[in-house]
Amino acid sequence: MWDPNMLQTTNWLDALWNENDNFSYIADDNAFPGPGASVGPQDAASVFGSPAHAPSVGITPASGSSEETATGEYYVDGLPGRLPRSRKRKRDSAAHSDSVTQARSPEWQTTSSAVAHGRMPILNKTHEVISQMIKASFAQPATSPSYLASDSSIPAKETLERSLHAYWKSFNLILPVSHLETERTLESPIVTLARCSLGEKYTPASSETSESLHEHVSQLLSHSGDSLVSGEGASALCHARLLNHIGCLYGRDSKLRNTAMKDHHTLRQIYDHFAANFKTLQPLTSNEGTRWETWVTQETCIRLAYGAWLLDAMKASHYCVRPQLSLEDAWLPLPCSERLWEAKSSGEWQDILALEQSPPSLNIAIQELLIEKRVPRERGEFARVLIIHGLYHRIWEVSKYFSNPLSAWAPVAQRQQRSDALLEDPVWLPAVPEFAKWQNASCDAIDVLHWQANATIGQARGLEHPTVLHLHFARVVLLTPLEQIVRVAKHKAGVQSVELSTYELDKSLVQRWAVQHPYKARLAAIHAGVLFWHVRRHSIDAFYEAPALALSALVLWAFGTYAASVNSAQPVRIPDQLPDATHRPPSDVEDEKSCSIILLDRPTDDELVQQFIRAGHKMQAHISGIGDLYSAKGPSRVLSHASRLLASLDSWNSAKIWLDILGPLSEAPLPTVNQ
Predict the structure, then answer these.
(1) Interhelix angle for 518-538 vs 606-615, to 10°?
(2) Are 448 and 466 in contact (CB under 8 A)?
(3) CA 546 from centroid of its chain's CA atoms
(4) Alpha-carbon torsion 407, 498, 525, 565, what sign?
(5) In terms of DSSP bridges, do strands 627-628 and 620-623 run parallel, antiparallel, or are they unpaired?
(6) Keywords, A to Z (predicted)?
(7) Which pLDDT belongs to residue 549?
(8) Is 378 exposed, middle or buried (0-12, 13-18, 19+ CB in 10 A)?
């Protein structure tokens, strides 16, 4: 699992280790373990636990807004790129520079000693109830009868115990909404079956078993109002719905996925249920005997509600659909830190609780991040992932507002010609100054989170934790016309036909993004490429990895296609956006002359990244096994490479939906600038 070369792979955003702009420290692809040796679910429990002490915030200023910052330190200053992180650190005080390196090493913990074996015990009574519910469901009209054919599909108790063990060992690390130390004594049959359906994806058994379990759960939930699940409470049913929705939405079965895609109410109902439950819960008492259990109940409501909120945001970003929840709904406190959540006893929990502050709501946390540019060190990884997706929502809100031409018009008493008073429709958002500021502010906010993540990576000797994938994918979502890129790709791949006028409009916008918004396009391409690295080396077989990888590949394809078409004709320079060289530090100009190549799928030095953002049209953008993305075959090769990576993510068996797009698209003729 560990490789000494991993010490050289700390993400490029952090410059704790200053290196020159060369590639001598980047090993050949064969020097690293291949996809089969990446961190998998069997290692996840020992690797992706929570650090007992999170690192300090690695950003200047560290607190408040009274400290001065140099122009160009943040994207929100409006320049093409920000100053490299290493240059800022050289100006920082020694005490601040050492604040991260002096943090104590993380104490990676296993989920629980109870899951150290290959099976998680299930009560005989619970299995009997599950069997009875499934048998009773056979008499009901099945919506998807492919697996519910006979009593033979009722899983054996040993099968369910192995699946339940896999759920706690693997999936609960990906979406930590269940509390093992207290819930193992409160077995809900429907929740147990839903957990087993997800855990089965991480066992060596046939994938049909997992789909069969999802079918059982879906069938039972569809009759939740009758006697089939009469013994289950509303919270148990909502809990099971959340887990089953994930399995259906990101699983192999197209029927289950289509049903989940068309379901526009379940996630809203789940969130509203647990948010309402949280309001009715009693505050913590001084009774030490029940205080921990009361807190766990409260925290579980928070996590299940935000689990639905997060899944809704992921569904929107992965499948380009409208979210059903928003930041207005995010009034609940953020989930607590992992070390508090994973406390093994009331005494341990009490000791940790005394050291931590109560977390704010997601809305307040986003305000702190955007305005104060800080994240408290005790903020947990689940909370950080929520904050990242909260930034998605903020950009979606801003985009929706400024996409209306009236938003940029100031009402006046005089009559005006509409064509003269309003912006062109559709509005080219990068040309709207207010939108550009929000986009830049979001980039700065993600950088704050990424700098902290890099401190954790450094403490883990180069091992990237799952939040890193969300940080890379955030740039893909925030900086690209993702919906239009997907529609163009589906049309060219023959997967989804659109009207010619819609296709031409989408293609024109994507081309304009690559050519007229080159700085953000290059920044997105860098993170899309490094996401390939993360999936190759640090995959945990999470349900969101396949869509993030596929969408990143489509962004690289679009960028390589349209940016390369222009670069082959003549270099692109936007005078109004590119600062004059006389106003930039001399080292910037020297650096841009010293390197003509960047490896997009490798963590690399931040100065080289900023050089590529500013002058990427003068450089070669290489990807392992592909060559220069700007080359004639670069865009199609990146799709083929992504297809191979997708095929290696086999736990969820959800790659087919993306391979059906990437495969035909890689064989389609590349469009030219005017095509």
Answers:
(1) 140
(2) no
(3) 11
(4) negative
(5) antiparallel
(6) Metal-binding, Nucleus, Transcription, Transcription regulation, Zinc
(7) 97
(8) middle
Domain-embedded: residue 443? no
Residue ranges of alpha helices (H) inside 539-655 are 545-569, 586-594, 606-615, 634-648
pLDDT in tens, 485-511: 999 999 999 988 889 999 999 999 999
pLDDT at site 117: 59
- Residue 135 half-sphere exposure, CB side, CA atoms within 13 Å? 7
For CA atoms 135, 141, 143, 145, give the dihedral sign.
positive
Write the Ramachandran bin of 374: left for phi over 0, alpha for psi from -120 to 50, otherwise beta: beta
Intra-chain end-to-end CA distance of the chain, in Å: 47
Cα separation, 232 vs 234, in Å, equals 7
Environment class of 149 (CB within 10 Å of its CB; exposed 0-12, middle 13-18, buried 19+)? exposed
Mean pLDDT, all residues of the chain? 80
Joined tokens for residue 158: 């040993």
Find residue 630's DSSP bridge partners: none
Of the given ranges (29-43, 485-499, 509-523, 547-561), which has the lowest mean pLDDT? 29-43
Q: Torsion angle, CA of 165/171/177/179, rounded to 10 degrees?
A: 30
% residues pLDDT > 70 (the chain)? 72
Same-domain check for residues 14 and 125: no
Nearest to 623 by CA among 531, 519, 550, 540: 531
The per-residue DSSP string of 366-414 comes to HHIIIII----TT--HHHHHHHHHHHHHHHHHHHHHHHSGGGGPPP-SS
* Structural domain count of the chain: 2
pLDDT over threshold 80, residue 577: no
Which tokens sit at 504?
Answer: 């031409």
How far CA 226 is from CA of 158, 273, 635, in Å, comes to 29, 20, 54
The token pair at 340 is 């508090």
Residues 62 and 174 placed together within one structural domain of the fold: no
Say if 377 falls within a structural domain: no
Q: State which residues form the domain around 469.
A: 4-97+422-431+453-667
CA pair distance 638, 251, nearest whole angstrom: 25
